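Researcher: Quick test of sequence recovery. Tokens follow.
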């Protein structure tokens, strides 16, 4: 039997929801029937639409702690409630930690950890006393679960974000569920900046057990699930959407002798 998720009548906010992964999440929520407000520092070149419906944009720099409460006051005044927050805004340029300097590292942590804290608090003010509570989804990364050379501050921030979600899931239960979506590599319009041309993307894709990068829509589908009643008993969880992670390097490096016993025969 097919399972469909209907979020009609629910209100969602997606930070950084105008491009890349955020736009994929926004489109999935729109397609599921939710009213969606998106925020970013700059307006999108084109409105984010899906299923004949359009997300409403309002400018916000999530790093501005004075502006965040005003944004959620606008959400309350405009929609009357807030059911879903997707804490998506974030990112980091590549740079070895010793070459980056403390100021750059602090800015990256601010965007990927401190700002989501502020946003979560703003959403909590709307969700905590309303009927049905709410659901928050933190957009994490595999960089927070394994070594992250070239994005050390980003990986540290994402590890902290996952811990924050687990803690808030306890502090804010039972009214508000808080989960983390742990993403691997996603094929967005920014993919060439990270992986190069089509040949580079194909080479990187071969390191993923499922053989490809995720599509933004697949991150969106996972968010819709976590926001829905199907996940009503899921909180404090980390859902990995990474295609199986990365193939262990030793599999390519190992050169067993030709007469080595097979796995079926055993090794000892």
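Model:
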């Amino acid at each position: 039997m097919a399972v469909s998720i209907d979020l009609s009548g629910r209100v969602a906010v997606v930070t950084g929801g105008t491009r890349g992964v955020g736009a994929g999440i926004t489109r999935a929520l729109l397609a599921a029937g939710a009213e969606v407000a998106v925020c970013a520092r700059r307006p999108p070149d084109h409105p984010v639409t899906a299923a004949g419906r359009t997300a409403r944009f309002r400018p916000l720099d999530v790093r501005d702690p004075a502006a965040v409460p005003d944004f959620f006051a606008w959400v309350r005044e405009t929609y009357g409630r807030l059911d879903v927050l997707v804490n998506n805004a974030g990112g980091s340029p590549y740079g070895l930690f010793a070459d980056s300097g403390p100021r750059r590292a602090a800015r990256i942590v601010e965007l990927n950890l401190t700002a989501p804290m502020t946003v979560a608090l703003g959403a909590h003010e709307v969700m905590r006393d309303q009927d049905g509570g709410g659901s928050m989804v933190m957009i994490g990364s595999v960089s927070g679960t394994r070594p992250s050379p070239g994005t050390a501050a980003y990986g540290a921030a994402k590890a902290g974000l996952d811990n924050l979600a687990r803690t808030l899931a306890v502090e804010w239960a039972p009214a508000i569920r808080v989960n983390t979506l742990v993403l691997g590599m996603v094929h967005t319009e920014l993919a060439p900046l990270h992986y190069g041309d089509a040949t580079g993307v194909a080479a990187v894709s071969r390191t993923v057990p499922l053989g490809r990068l995720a599509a933004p829509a697949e991150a969106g589908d996972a968010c819709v699930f976590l926001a829905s009643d199907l996940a009503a008993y899921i909180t404090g969880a980390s859902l990995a959407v990474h295609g199986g992670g990365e193939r262990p390097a030793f599999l390519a490096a190992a050169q067993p002798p030709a007469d080595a016993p097979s796995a079926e025969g055993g090794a000892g």
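The two ends are 47 Å apart (CA to CA).
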